[in-house]
């Protein structure tokens, strides 16, 4: 594997900037937006025959996309099933597509919640430093998930989430496109934007173990 990685590194071409966007639990997110009650209960979009997606509360019980609804009900008896409204999902997807087109007029939508963009022209046209804003919510915020690791970042402000009352810290990172600093930022934080809840849970558990280890070393 190391040998293969080395070969790929030799031929890596960083002259083009391409982005793949996959919206997380898209159908469920739209339904939870329209019915806030669904944000705090296990729910899935679909029918007893097949599920399209589920929210993260339902996933804790093993409920997954492409699972028959009757099996999901056995795993999670309190699961709320919402019938899909594909006309509504298409309308929302069109809004996202219009936004993506501002950055790449040839954006390719792989599905209602998936897009492929080439940002080469956009990135090369921006020579001024760009400030990235990252938000982290303290506790289990049901509105948004933590985006990135923030050990080395300094919070610039603290807010409170209006929907669930959780504390929200805002961090800022200034990155200049076309420089090595941009590559370092993406290599360090890029994968953080696609963390799933299980990854976040593991991250928290790792931090607790490290903190506990430091305390034990201080007090042998």
UniProtKB/TrEMBL annotation:
SUPFAM superfamilies: DNA/RNA polymerases. Pfam families: IMS (PF00817). InterPro entries: DNA/RNA_pol_sf, DNA_polymerase-Y, Rev_trsase/Diguanyl_cyclase, UmuC. GO terms for cellular component: nucleus. One of its GO terms (molecular function) is DNA-directed DNA polymerase activity. Residues 18-127 form the UmuC domain. One of its GO terms (biological process) is error-prone translesion synthesis. This is UmuC domain-containing protein. It comes from Ancylostoma ceylanicum.
């Amino acid at each position: 594997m190391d040998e293969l990685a080395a070969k790929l590194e030799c031929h890596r071409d960083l002259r083009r900037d391409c982005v793949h966007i996959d919206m997380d639990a898209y159908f469920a997110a739209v339904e939870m937006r329209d019915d806030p009650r669904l944000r705090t209960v296990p729910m899935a979009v679909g029918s007893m025959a097949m599920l399209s997606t589920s929210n993260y509360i339902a996933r804790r019980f093993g409920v997954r996309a492409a699972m028959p609804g009757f099996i999901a009900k056995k795993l999670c008896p309190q699961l709320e099933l919402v019938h899909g409204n594909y006309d509504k999902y298409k309308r929302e997807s069109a809004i996202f597509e219009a936004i993506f087109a501002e950055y790449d007029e040839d954006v390719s939508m792989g599905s209602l919640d998936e897009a492929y963009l080439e940002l080469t022209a956009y990135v090369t046209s921006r020579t001024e430093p760009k400030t990235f804003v990252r938000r982290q919510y303290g506790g289990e915020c049901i509105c948004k998930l933590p985006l990135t690791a923030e050990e080395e970042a300094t919070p610039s402000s603290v807010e409170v989430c209006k929907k669930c009352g959780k504390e929200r810290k805002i961090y800022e990172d200034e990155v200049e496109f076309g420089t090595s600093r941009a590559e370092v930022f993406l290599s360090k934080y890029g994968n953080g934007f696609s963390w799933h809840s299980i990854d976040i849970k593991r991250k928290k558990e790792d931090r607790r173990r490290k903190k506990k280890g430091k305390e034990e070393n201080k007090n042998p």
